Amino acid sequence: MIIWLNGTHGAGKTTTSALVQQLIPDSRVFDAEKVGETLMDITPGLPKTDNFQHWPPWRPLVVETARRVLEYTGGTLVMPMTVLVEAYWREISAGLAQHAIPLRHFVLHADQDTLRRRIAGDTVLGPNSPFRLKYLEAYAEAARTWLPDEAEVVDASHLTPAQTALQIAEALKS
């Protein structure tokens, strides 16, 4: 099974994924961003883009990597990864479905004020990371349109990461 944690940058996916992994027996965290980093390391580089998700190989490589890891280890993969382009999400979820991999898709939602406050205090990329800020509008648009129909929304605006992880673990029992 895959537990996909979606949401914009600063929503708490990475922190929450580690806590969810601790609550789910026989689970591992797989950050699909590492697949993108591998593609970014190709030299000479792939065509210029501002987001590795735009490279067509990224999406099937995420599916194939997850499939192969699950085939090897069994259990559950917890995958913290922002995907805000509906067509990309459909490609990934369809690829997983073709391999009969069960998928639970959660969106860690936070209101814009909470997100801006978290980004302002970010200690990983630094305060007010332009990278994180530039995705706020794309997230707001996805959250208004397709994302709630494709995922279970967890409003993490006023939850700690531990509370968010517990809510996801509880949802998995149903």
Pick out its properties.
single chain, 174 residues, alpha/beta, 5-stranded parallel sheet, 9 helices, 49% helix
Question: Could you walk me through the main structural features you see in this protein, from its secondary elements to its overall organization?
Answer:
With 174 residues, the chain is of the alpha/beta class. Helices cover 49% and strands 14% of the residues. It contains 9 helices and 5 strands, in the order E-H-E-H-H-E-H-E-H-H-H-H-E-H. It has helices spanning 13-23, 33-40, 58-73, 86-98, 112-120, 130-133, 136-144, 147-150, 161-172; strands spanning 2-6, 27-29, 76-80, 103-109, 152-155. A 5-stranded parallel β-sheet has the order 2-3-1-4-5, sandwiched between helices. Helix 3 runs parallel beside helix 4 (86-98). The longest helix has 16 residues, at 58-73. The radius of gyration is 16 Å and the shape is globular. The two termini are 14 Å apart.
Q: What does this entry show, briefly?
A:
With 174 residues, the protein is α/β, with parallel strands linked by helices. 49% of the residues lie in helices and 14% in strands.
Rg from alpha-carbon coordinates: 16 Å
Q: What composes the largest sheet?
A: 5 strands, parallel
Shape: globular
Alpha-carbon distance between the termini?
A: 14 Å
- Count of DSSP strands: 5
